[in-house]
Amino acid sequence: MSEAIATNQTILVVGGGISGLTAALEAAECGKQVVLLEKSPSVGGRVGQLYKYFPKLCIPTCGLEIQYRRLKANRNIRLISMAEVTDIKGEEGNYNISVKVAPRYVNENCTACGECGDAVEAEFDDEHNFGLGKRKGAYLTSRMAYPQRYVLDPRIIGTDDAQKAKDACKYNAVDLEMQEQDMELNVGSVIWATGWKPYDAAKIQPYGYDRFDNVITNVEMERMMDPFGPTGGRIQRPSDGKEPKNIAFIQCAGSRDHNHLKHCSRICCMASLKQTTYVREQFGDEAKSTIYYIDIRAIDRIDDFYQKVKEDENVSFVKSKVANIVDNKDSGNLILNGVDTEGYNRYANEHDLVVLAIGMESNVPAGVFPEGTAINEHNFIDFDPANGGIFGAGCSSDALDVNRATQNATAAALRAIQVVNRVAGQEG
Amino acid sequence: MSENKTGAYICQGCGLGERLDTSQLVTIATRDGKANVAKEHEFLCSAEGVKMIQDDIDNEGVNKVVIAACSRRAKTDAFRFDDVAMSRANLREGVIWVRPDTDEARETTQEMADDYVRMACAEVKHMKLPESSGEQSLNRHLMVVGGGISGLTSAIEAAKAGYKVDLVEKSGELGGQVGKLYKSVPRKNGLQGYVDSEIGELIEAVNANDNITIHLNTTVAGTEGAPGRFKAELATESGSTSSIEIGAIVQATGFRRYDINQLDNLGGGKSPDVVDQMGFEELAKAANGGTIKRPSDGKEVSNVVFVQCAGQRSNEPGHLNYCSGHCCTTSIKQAMYVRDAGGDATVLFDDLRTPGATGEDFYRAGQEKGVAFSKGKCTSVDTSGDLKVNFKDLILDEDATANADMVVLATGMVPASGPNPYLQLELDEAKNQEGQEEKVVKLEAELAKAPDSILNLSYRQGTDVPHLKNGFTDSHFICFPYETRRTGIYTAGPVRRPMDTSQAIEDATGATMKAIQACENAAQGRAAHPRSGDLSFPSFRKEGCTQCKRCTVECPFGAIDEDEKGYPQYNEARCRRCGTCMGACPVRVISFENYSVETVGQQLKNVDIPDEFDEKPRILVLACENDAYPALDMAGMNREEISPWARIIPVRCLGSVNTIWITDALNSGYDGVMLMGCQKGDNYQCHFVKGSEMAHYRMSKIDDTLKTLNLEKERVQTYEVSIADIQRIPKLINDMDKMIVDEIGMSPFKF
Prior knowledge:
- The complex is a heterodimer of chains A (428) and B (751).
- With 428 residues, chain A is α/β, with parallel strands linked by helices.
- Chain A folds into two domains: 10-196 and 361-427, 3-Layer(bba) Sandwich (FAD/NAD(P)-binding domain), CATH 3.50.50.60; 199-360, FAD/NAD(P)-binding domain.
- Helix content of chain A is 23%, strand content 25%.
- In chain A, the strands form seven sheets. In chain A, strands 3-2-1-11-22 form a five-stranded parallel beta sheet, covered by helices on one side. A five-stranded parallel beta sheet of chain A has the order 13-20-14-15-16.
- In chain A, helix 1 runs parallel beside helix 2, helix 1 packs parallel to helix 8 and helix 5 (218-225) runs parallel beside helix 6.
- Chain A is globular, with a radius of gyration of 23 Å.
- Chain B folds into four domains: 1-129, Rossmann fold, CATH 3.40.50; 141-254 and 453-524, FAD/NAD(P)-binding domain, CATH 3.50.50.60; 259-415, FAD/NAD(P)-binding domain (3-Layer(bba) Sandwich), CATH 3.50.50; 609-751, Rossmann fold.
- Chains A and B meet through helix 1, helix 2, helix 7 and helix 8 of A and helix 9, helix 12 and helix 16 of B.
């Protein structure tokens, strides 16, 4: 990748998930110059890890494919992967951005033929699968990976495996001498779209994610459903690989909670409702789902999805914040204790798998933005005049579903265009 | 255009050189493909390989390029050549990666590769570079319809980007529903109460902006044209008209209040002290910070009950079956009005929906202000004496009653959209058919109830933007909220889906982004999403056209009009380049420069069809390039095995498949034909909305053709697939292979 050339009429988009891709594409298709930075080896972000979208139950990679095609066709966008912003200085219309680009150890000669992956022996936890499975030390992040280029795990550098990868490549694509690079960019406006991460489930002590094998998170459930994922597309209990028949979904796991994330993460209700359809898809009438919830937030016209799930007699709803979980050591089952607030009845319900509808934690980093940037207590970037030409997009601005994230990212693209158009007007 | 010269470049990398006889491919390209230049390279996507091709383009006059290497989805940066037509023979993902590396497979694998080279040469020969239609025009000027918060936002945001705006408002003032509010829900998080509305400042800013022309008491009497060259007639109340020329349109016509008289069991229309949220705002505005007085007797209210989901989230007749999204926070805000004046306020809810950081903070702020939240379902409001709210307390699981000075019904938003344009078309069609009297009556009744047109489009497919559900004009796509079926016209705010003020502001900004992009696209003849940047556009051979109107009716985007003689009029800037018109045309006169009946037809005709006794069937697979084709690529990456008899051709959309291809394939001796497109129906995933559905419909009529040819109907199959069907698609192909070999046998049409 050649050095990105940027000017103060360039828009910098940080983050190559669905929001960043959208913002970058909308601006670029309006004729603007865009530099798109992505921290990981390929773009796509969280949506690439989802099995299906609510409410249509369609395939997330279908939309990504269109975005990638737009990206491939557009010469206004320079994509730099494995790049992270370390500092932003300056003001609206004139920002200096410091960027660190991690070595990929694979150059643009790569044809994604896969020989290096076959040659390397070392395996590591697969980030794409939240560590549920393994991947090779030379790998493509997924079948949809874009750029479609392998990457070497830095942990194999200096080992025999690195040499094996290099020897396997017929195209001189493996470059073990690659170093981390620092890069400075001058841009007019910044769209920050670094998205979200699942809240650390282990911090919710009473639910025992770190103690009980059969307590999983909803994002792990998504990976289980992938036919090429860690379980070959099967929902199964981590402890013994058995098919669960009686699954609990715990809403607001880490959200709407003073001890964890205070905000509502918005997507988790719909996500659990959606995941009950996975359970039905796999087990038909053989398995039951129970959703423990405070409020079901199936907002606006997608409320009909909730209505439909409610009609499924294998899905039941308990209005309750689950107090704690204890395990039955013999069966690996879990007992959920709490009070059903509809009627105030105490319960101790046994389930064979618990899915935590985990909260959405903002990925906005500390120490990067100019002083005075309005970042709220939930770590989302406010839309605020104090932010000048820096705009949060997608889940950097609030907890949003995909539809709202792309909507918000489209709006952010216009705000950035306004800045660079003003610069252009001044510069003539 | 200068003389055509085809260069075919065959890659030996990624195992192609070992698995295939690439020198034979060079021969095939020259002998069968009639390529003027054919070269092998050990690593075609390398700088050297690319330079070899570029040199031929620059020095040898090659203007048609065949890349026989990996999939068209791979190595796009390397294989990007300006001003040449290009076809890619997919020998890696499409051949060697889906075939076993065995001696017995070698021959059939080579045959596959041979055919793909022939196909690519044939395709590129019939491809032309898109030339300018001459229709391009740059007009950085928007029309925004609706002067509420969404329309005002759209106008000011467009102006800030340097675009001019004509803002059209039906009433005599700007501000819309938000302008009638006493206070607003904050757009920012933090434990705070309601805030002053920003609408006053926004109106001022719009008034002061030189780029914005405001038209009050004005409606749109007519709209014609296309992005970049729309013309709109504006009519004022006084009867005067004026005409404006604009590049794109934002429709922000907001919502209508739900009629609370329909909720008589909840006291709607029975007591003046039972009001909807907008009614309560009026009272709060009148009180202006003092205690709210109730309408019936002017008594200062000290106890108000807010009934959530009144007439919504319900399937009862007359109710709205969706959630309006904003009503929970609105009721919390209004309950705060009551609490701040020292009264009691209770919110009766089923699910309290205050999502995100801002929503949840506002909910907490309400709790801190002492608003009572009660989970219950209101069963009736007794208006016979003092108001009594009867409800089922869902916490205590018992029936309960609450007294109230006033009751506020949180009713839903009814989209203020124009009429569904397809109703009139359906009616016209029904009237032309016999035995449709019942349908005609039903449609006429529905049309009589339809609202007035908002845009009065002169389009063949009706006057307004199509509805999705419940009258909302929303996009069906999750990833693409601004996908619209009327290119260059974007709806924003609650006309699109129910939403609160914050959302409406975001939404209007996003819609404005798409509108200015539509202006820029139109200026360059570029397609809008999903074929962004495509410069090809459909044209037709007038001599052959029978004015049958299939193309004007079937275009999913209403892009094609008819002239007075009934010939189609393509509007480049409205067209999305899916090719559904091309698929529809019974006389095959519609084509794109680089995608036509010929570019596909010649591919399938250039496949070598072995003699019946060779026992090598041929299966034609027409695969949607958006989902089926990527899935096939990934099947290759996954080394899923695919029948060596399959020959796969990507198509822009299944809607572009013309039945002549099927007939030609069957006549040339193919043993099976498979069409693979996206999901159709209510949850359609077709990126061109109706393409896949049209294809299924057309194929349902192919049986007659098969009968005429005396062929089994199993030979032609249409499938709905997704991009995730990485294992299923190979299986479908292999099943077809098996069926031909084991059951129905070879086609008799081999020569």
